[in-house]
Amino acid sequence: MRQVNNVNDRYRVKKPESVKEVPKYLITLVSTFCTRLFYIFRLVWETKRSLLFLMVFMALFNGVMPVIGSLIGAQIMNRLAEAYAASQNGTQFAFRMIAVLLALQFFYTFVNSSISRVYSLVLSISGEQLSNHVKMKIMQKAKEVDMVSFDSPDFYARMENANREAGMRPLQIMNSTFDVLSTLIRIVSYIVVLFAVSWWAPIVIVIVSIPTTVINFVYRKKNVNYMFFRSKNRRQMEYYAGTVIDKDLVKEIRMFNLADTFTEKYQAAFQEYYDGLRKLRIGECLYGLLAALLTSVVYCLLYIFLARGVYRGNFPVGDFSLYTGAITAISAGVTSLITSTSSIYEGTLFIENLISFLNEKPSIVPSIPEARHVDRHVGHTIEFENVYFRYPGSQKDVLKNINVKIRAGETVVIVGFNGAGKTTFVKLLTRLYDPTAGRILLDGHDIREYDVSELYDMFGMIFQDYGKYAVSVSENITFGDLGRDAGEAEVREAAAHSGADVFIDALPDGYDTPLMRYFEENGTELSIGQWQKLAIARAFYTDSDILILDEPTASLDPMAEQEIFNQFNELRADKTSIFISHRLSSATIADTILVMVNGEIVEKGSHRELMALGGEYYTLFSTQAARYIDSDGDGQADA
Predict the structure, then answer these.
(1) Cys bridge to 432: 60, 427, 541, 574, which one at CB 3.0-4.6 A?
(2) DSSP state string for 412-470
(3) What is the total count of domains within the chain?
(4) Is the pLDDT of residue 214 over 60?
(5) Whole-angstrom Cα distance, residue 562 to residue 504?
């Protein structure tokens, strides 16, 4: 929770510690607010410039039209009063003016309604475009930021809040901003009208609105702070609810009877989130009721004052409706002004989170001004020099003093227990992370000096937690190298090398079959082994210089594994290959075996050399080999 609070602290304006600092504090506060607001204007401008001009027009239109409507209504009331008086006195009265005023009233109503409807339509459509624009920015930033950011709760808090607010906040703030403009025009217009009968009434209305204003602003800030503070609770609720309905987990959830457990965890997170929110909302409501009571009493006294004016003949009854309407309109305008400005204030606090997220700077960039270019389709030498690595916020080194050289065309197998640091080793090699200390050399140069995108292109990688994509079979394979200009034949060849062609040919639409039942009715679910063969086909499809395979055959039976390794022998010809495997039978093909224990390389050599050494590798290999001895006690290996 502490890290989530730091997100909010990052952009909170520091409160003044003395009276002398108050002016500077206010200037900073206004400057920060304007910066946030300008950023939102820029987002709208980038999305649809015409929307800004339309909003300006509507602000002026909405500011002037209610006053025009009130003036027309007052004139109708006055003419009707004159007509009634004429009828009582038996004199003639021309109804032509009343007919004209009524026609003007209906025309006003039609224009006002029509333009408002068109504006709502444009705003709705533009809102979708703006939401899409912001979502695209978030996705682009997620693509750029470092892998290490995804290990940080602080980063996830910012990303969650930015993504959650992206769809509504920018347009909502823009709309509220222009509502403020139209409300100000409307209030000023009604104040001018009201000045004809009382100069002090508008001042009273403004003064009585101050408590409501303070309450709104205070609680908007409290609401924003609470949203950030409880970001962890919302992520917990989303995770627990998603886990219960996840189609890939439903079998285990059902068999282990975990639904109630996760439901209880969800409810506990919700209750923690809800208790504070309820207290906040109740407090705002109670203070708001007190302010509303004060406002109602003052307005009642103003209405009595105007009623006495009509009774004394100071102005006609039609003007009474105009003046009382002006009081009501000013009151409603002040309320709208308070709501809109507090909404803008609240929104800009949320938007600052979006700005903070989008300003996240990647550190995985070339360390020199002119990045080195990677030589492709040649042999490469890799060297780790005194490499240490620990994850941010952790005090434990995951890798310790790694020193190893991998020569061009060499096949290296890394073995060790889970948590030994094998996958972290290849994440550093592929520069998904940078070492905490030491350096990694590619062809004699620090890996940090190379162009990052070119560096990624030279690796063909199968991760232990390989991707399962809800697209067609063919796309799942070609995702291994989107830059490769290859055709259907190459896709089929990659599938044949991995053994995936057998089950693909049996699918309803072959290589065009959509996988996973997320979007298509005819989507097909694959077994774990089939998915793994598809991931291996992705590696065969990749036009890489260095092949890295992290547990590539973990879900395959030994026979299928042996077939794939035979294929890999052809694929890795003239390529540097790095394997991570728990099945040590695959280590026998390696030029070099690295044995890792607790983040350190404790043994290094060929299979024959390490077996002769009788150390850690010998123990691991012998223990695993014993599994293949017939359990009947005859001491013979199974055929």
Answers:
(1) 427
(2) EEEE--TTSSHHHHHHHHTTSS--SEEEEEETTEEGGGB-HHHHHHTEEEE-TT----S
(3) 2
(4) yes
(5) 20
